[in-house]
Amino acid sequence: MEVVRKNFKEALPLISASIDKADFLVIDTEFTGLINGRDVSAFDTPEEYYYCLLKGAKDFLLIQYGLCAFYWDHNRKCYMNDTYNFYLFPRGKVGTEKMFLCQSSSLDFLGAQGFDFNKVFKEGISYMTEPVETRLRENLLEKQKTQAKEKDAITIPDEHKTFVEDVCNQVRQFIDDNKSDEMEIEKCNSFVRLLLFQEIRARFKDEVLIESKILENKTRVLKVIRIKSEDDTKNYNAQKNEREWEELEEAVGFSKVARMISQSGKLVVGHNMLLDILHTLNHFFQPLPLDYNSFKEFSNCMFPVLLDTKYMSSLPPFKDRVNSSVLQHLFSTLSSKPFSIPTVGSLEGRGYRRADDKHHEAGFDAYVTGLCFLAMHGHLSRMRGEEHARPSATSAVLKPFLSKLFLCKTAHQDSPYMNLAGADPTPSRDHVFHLTFPKEWQRNDINQLFSPFGPVTVQFVEDTSALVALSRREQAAGVLRALQARDGVALLPYSTYKRLIHQTSSRSDAASGDCKTVCVLNTLFMAIAFVCVAFVFLYVVLFMMECVETHFPRCERFPLLDQIFQRFIL
Amino acid sequence: MEVVRKNFKEALPLISASIDKADFLVIDTEFTGLINGRDVSAFDTPEEYYYCLLKGAKDFLLIQYGLCAFYWDHNRKCYMNDTYNFYLFPRGKVGTEKMFLCQSSSLDFLGAQGFDFNKVFKEGISYMTEPVETRLRENLLEKQKTQAKEKDAITIPDEHKTFVEDVCNQVRQFIDDNKSDEMEIEKCNSFVRLLLFQEIRARFKDEVLIESKILENKTRVLKVIRIKSEDDTKNYNAQKNEREWEELEEAVGFSKVARMISQSGKLVVGHNMLLDILHTLNHFFQPLPLDYNSFKEFSNCMFPVLLDTKYMSSLPPFKDRVNSSVLQHLFSTLSSKPFSIPTVGSLEGRGYRRADDKHHEAGFDAYVTGLCFLAMHGHLSRMRGEEHARPSATSAVLKPFLSKLFLCKTAHQDSPYMNLAGADPTPSRDHVFHLTFPKEWQRNDINQLFSPFGPVTVQFVEDTSALVALSRREQAAGVLRALQARDGVALLPYSTYKRLIHQTSSRSDAASGDCKTVCVLNTLFMAIAFVCVAFVFLYVVLFMMECVETHFPRCERFPLLDQIFQRFIL
Predict the structure, then answer these.
(1) Distance of CA A482 to CAs A136, A431, A446, A489, Å?
(2) A82: left (phi over 0), alpha (psi -120 to 50) or beta
(3) CA distance B18 to chain A (A)
(4) B543 vs A493, A559, B405, B463, B540, CA distance in Å?
(5) Which B-chain residues 193-222 have CB contacts (< 8 A) with chain A?
(6) Strand ranges inside B23-163, DSSP E
(7) Keyword set for this entry (chains A, B) (predicted)?
(8) How far is A174 from A165, CA to CA, in rounded Å?
């Protein structure tokens, strides 16, 4: 089911019911970019991985959200899916103007998949974080309390006086004529509108109401409405207040769905879901914390039972049969023996069917992820002789996979997951070295250098440096001794390299961050030093005078300089 | 005429011809955002105005370009328009991945005008600056020169060995079977594709060619092609090189049109065109300079004859009759007496007609701007008795308006334009004051404070400060004396306020920017100071020893300390 701005309000109860009856939920998202800044390196820790993605998750926008609720149909004896494909776009209406970043390649990719950008920007459902929502609610409450007060008057500049008078005369005419109940004032810029608003309110307070109306095409006009009874004013104000609250609710929008998912406490499944979770937390709950452990706590608190099918498929018994865990490839692998995709139905218009084939639409990808999950869960259950078990967050079968998000870029280096509910893997990096090499070197020269120790993985850092990892890790002990003495190359253990990098970055942080403190201390020190320098200067001058007086060679009253003079100069 | 990626190449000669035959060109653009950072204040100088817009012009993207060429039809005795509405989107294909910023309100606005975002992201024509183009041309030349060399080998990790062997066996089979000329390898991730590419090239070098192909939906597959003769390889390489150059030309894309406009040297008209010019220069020519005077030079060099219809309409004889210079309002004003919009035709499918009504489509807005320009030019010519004059960059009628871009946010404070071809206006700011006031004050309190000096314009800076400008400028002299002594308020002349702001910002620039230099100097100074301090310390110690030796009260060998000692301590 496609959900956009105009059907969001009516879809909300359906969504709530789907979440309530679901055995598990599957999510998938699309964003305007992936990485902003340094990309993850193959040897990064889960914590470094988080810091690499953090900036992107804050700067890029979430524009599509797929939510697929799988529930058991007792009559049909099969799973059913209710799937929602939401188009999202945070609107500035209530003062939540948003600046966001896009990566051209990401939009290009989405475009090639047939992604509908017009639906995003024209019909997207708004969203906001909890702190923003709280602030807006407080502001609106305050505004409605104080709106009875008169606004401050703006002086009418001379060049607009004639026009304002003209319009006021027209309004007078409209009131006196008593032919129609509304009149519109067009063709004025925003400043003139403000002046008219103020003047008409002041002059015809009890006769007309005035409101600024935004037409469909975003043109603003002023509407003057005749007051026919005192109730008119009251009703008008009450309606206006109500409309403002409705607008606020609409602006909170999709965040409500995200919070329902969180509050359900149900198993939430995703495929390669780290970025999905980062964006979900950052855009609908709170800005992502800068500290990794706070993030883990925050995430585990909002989504205590997560399962990443990409991680699941990277472990036995799936690992050996899954060549590529790209979602479509995984689905195709799990469609053939010894695996099988179970039958999953859907009510007309409420979910997807396998024939739909809408890859990279968030809703469809969530649905396919759910099918993969059921196939892998079924396979594991059959292996344990539990033929007809339904997935459950508390089942032993799923326990090894829970709260572990796949880290595709470090998986090959023993850091395959981020554990949101406990300690992360801490793989050894003893087999990794930082190599500085001559400018003309290519990958082959590095392979050559390391050839006595078997094959290596090379990741270039700069033009003349790279991280090099041995495939035969047990060989690591001999590398430094054997290669360090080579001409033109310099080799560091990975741990030393990381320590140096860390020191450099914290030193430059200190240099820029604490510059003020340093400057104050310097000034203080310079004052003291200045006194000393003055003292020395005076001493030298007196010494010279004494020298001149006594015509050399000895100036006994200045023993220090005298000694220096006697020993080194004369 | 709508121009997108697929018809750009064939449209290019038409565009070139339109520019050649035109009397004048009109441009209009749409971007993904307007202001990033501080907005312009009403009292800013043209230079400060530039700095306010600079960041946005660099960070936001240009997504639509309207170019309207007006040429004289001697048979019909009227102007004709050839108008092109270009959808633009810089693609990452040749390594020009672009990060760009969007402002949600801007996209919301464009969306409401019926803007087609899908055309931008899916069919947009690419573009790039000249330095990027030069670099890419050099890179490609270098790449094609060196591509004959063998690529460096990547070690095949153990887990992929079986799969790679399997595929190589399939390729062997394909070669031996000799049934078809092509075979595709699917379902592998990017790393496995790289391994296969390398292995197949190495093992079957003379039997097959291998290429990585991107399908319409951005899926990549490997294609293995049978080599039937030696020419196959040569042709294949020649074709590949040619394709790469074509791709580069496509990526340069719209920049070619922008450069044609510049090279034509013709009169270029726009409405409120400062941002249009900033984006045009920054995206198709060179990144905007950080220095204002360099920008003026650069701009004047690229577009020597510019005319801004918003500026034109703000001067007599139009000023008094134009209430709002919003393009649509201006057009409507110029449609009625004493003005008149001339008849402008177009060839079928090549230009707009007045009935089209596609406001906020860049091409249509350029067309309407051209009509407004012709109407205003006609009016001026008629006033001079030159009934049938055609606009010309050298005519006296247009001279006062050339190279002056309208500054809408400072126009009311005597700074209505930026003069690209000469000195900017330097309006007095003697009537402006910086006021610091108590927290609970509102606009009315400020009006009250200044009431002895007539009406004021107030622009809030922070919660407790504002810039206040007198309408009766001649009163300025008395303000400071009369109001400075008031309790709770502080008043500064605008010039003093600006100087303070400037000092603070340059001081903090120095503090952060030159921190390194300062640190080096400090270290040097500290070394000298340390020697001096050591000297003084030694002196004091020797003095003490002498004192102890001579049991006080006089230590004649240390005259300086002795004197201090005798005078101040004993």
Answers:
(1) 65, 14, 14, 12
(2) beta
(3) 31
(4) 55, 10, 76, 61, 5
(5) 216-218
(6) 24-31, 62-73, 78-87, 99-103
(7) Membrane, Transmembrane, Transmembrane helix
(8) 14
Looking at CA atoms only, how far is residue B457 from chain A in angstroms? 7
According to DSSP, the residues that pair with A307 across neighbouring strands are: A269, A402
Q: Give the angle A156-A160-A165 at the CA atoms, nearest 5°.
A: 90
Domains and CATH numbers, chain A: 2-128+254-419 (3.30.420.10), 151-247 (3.30.1370.50), 432-513 (3.30.70.330), 515-569 (no CATH)
∠A280-A282-A287 over CA atoms, to 5°? 160
**Cα distances (Å, whole numbers) of residue B358 to B80, B236, B363:** 18, 47, 9
Ramachandran area for residue B28 (φ above 0: left; ψ -120 to 50: alpha; else beta): beta
- pLDDT, position A558: 65
pTM of the model: 0.81
Say if residues B63 and B101 touch (Cβ distance below 8 Å).
no
Residues of B in contact with A153 (CB under 8 A): 443-444, 447
Per CB-CB distance under 8 Å, the chain A contacts of B6 are none
- What lies within 8 Å, CB to CB, of A57 at 6+ separation is A275, A278, A279, A282, A288
Residue window 112-151, chain B: list those with CB within 8 Å of chain A: 112-118, 120-122
Task: Determine the Cα–Cα distance for residues A92 and A98; give it in Å rounded to an integer.
Answer: 7
Which pLDDT belongs to residue B197? 83
Structure tokens at B299: 């701009």
d(CA B270, CA B19): 16
Span between the terminal Cα atoms of chain A, in Å: 100
The answer to whether B527 contacts chain A (CB < 8 Å) is no
Nearest to B491 by CA among B445, B428, B449, B433: B433
pLDDT digits (tens, 9 = 90+) for B468-477: 999 888 888 8
* ipTM surpasses cut 0.85: no
Question: Residues of A161-197 as b/e, b for ≥16 C-beta within 10 angstroms?
Answer: eebbeebbeebeebeeeeeeeebebeebeeebbebbb
d(CA A190, CA A301): 47
Residue A183 φ/ψ, nearest 5 degrees: -140, 145
Supply A386's token pair: 């539990």
Burial B392-418 (b: 16+ CB within 10 A, else e): ebebebbeebbbbbbbbbbbebebbbb
In this predicted model, what pLDDT tens digit does every residue of B294-304 receive, in sequence order? Answer: 999 999 999 99
**What stretches of A96-185 adopt beta strand conformation (E)?**
99-103, 182-185
What is the distance between the alpha carbons of residues A352 and A67, in angstroms, rounded to a whole number?
A: 12
Q: Which helix (H) or strand (E) is B220 found in, with range?
A: strand B220-226
Q: Does B526 touch chain A (CB under 8 A)?
A: yes
